[in-house]
Amino acid sequence: MKLTLKIWRQPNPATAGAMHTYELDGVSEDMSFLEMLDVLNEKLNTSGEEPIAFDSDCREGICGMCGLMINGQAHGPEVTTTCQLHMRSFKDGDEITIEPWRADSFPVLKDLCVDRSALDRMVQAGGYISANTGSAPDAHAAPVEKKKADRAFDVATCISCGACVAACPNGSASLFLGAKITHLGELPQGQPERYSRVVGMVGQHDHDGFGGCTNIGECAAACPKEIPLDVISQLNKDLRTAMVKGR
Amino acid sequence: MAGSTLHEGLAPLNVASEQKSDDAHGYYVLGDKLVDAKAPTGPIKDRWTTRKFENRLVNPANRRKLDIIMVGTGLAGGAAAATLGEAGYNVKSFCYQDSPRRAHSIAAQGGINAAKNYKEDGDSTFRLFYDTVKGGDYRSRESNVYRLAEVSANIIDQCVAQGVPFAREYGGLLDNRSFGGVQVSRTFYARGQTGQQLLIGAYQAMERQVAAGTVKQYTRHEMLELIVVDGRARGIIARDMVTGEIETHLADVVVLATGGYGNVFYLSTNAMGSNVTATWRAHRKGAYMANPCYTQIHPTCIPVSGDFQSKLTLMSESLRNDGRIWVPKNREDCDKDPRDIPEEDRDYYLERIYPSFGNLVPRDIASRQAKNVCDEGRGVGPVVGDFRRGVYLDFADAIARMGRQAVETKYGNLFDMYARITGEDPYEVPMRIYPAVHYVMGGLWVDYDLQSNITGLYVTGEANFSDHGANRLGASALMQGLADGYFVLPNTIRDYLADGPFPKVAEDHPEVVAARESVEARINTFMSMNGTRSADSYHKELGNIMWEYCGMERTEEGLRKAIDMIRELKADFWSNLRVLGTADGINQSLEKAGRVADFIELGELMCVDALNRRESCGGHFRGESQTEDGEALRHDDEFAYVAAWEWGGEDGQPVLHKEDLIYTAIEMKQRSYK
Amino acid sequence: MPVVATPTLVSPPRSTRSTIALKLVMATSGLLFVAYVLAHMYGNLKAFSGQDKFNDYAHHLRELGEPILPYEGFLWIARTVLLVALVAHVVAAVLLTNRNRRARTTRYQVKKNVASSLSSRTMRWGGAALLLFIIWHLVNFSFGKVNVATGETGSAAGDPYTLMVGSFEVWWLTVIYLVAMVALALHLHHGTWSAMQTLGFTNTAASRRRAKQAGWLLAVVVAGGFSLVPLAVLVGIIEK
Ligand SMILES: Cc1cc2nc3c(=O)[nH]c(=O)nc-3n(C[C@H](O)[C@H](O)[C@H](O)COP(=O)(O)OP(=O)(O)OC[C@H]3O[C@@H](n4cnc5c(N)ncnc54)[C@H](O)[C@@H]3O)c2cc1C
Ligand code: HEM
Ligand code: HEM
Ligand code: SF4
Ligand code: F3S
Ligand code: FES
Question: Is the ipTM value over 0.90, yes or no?
Answer without folding.
Answer: yes
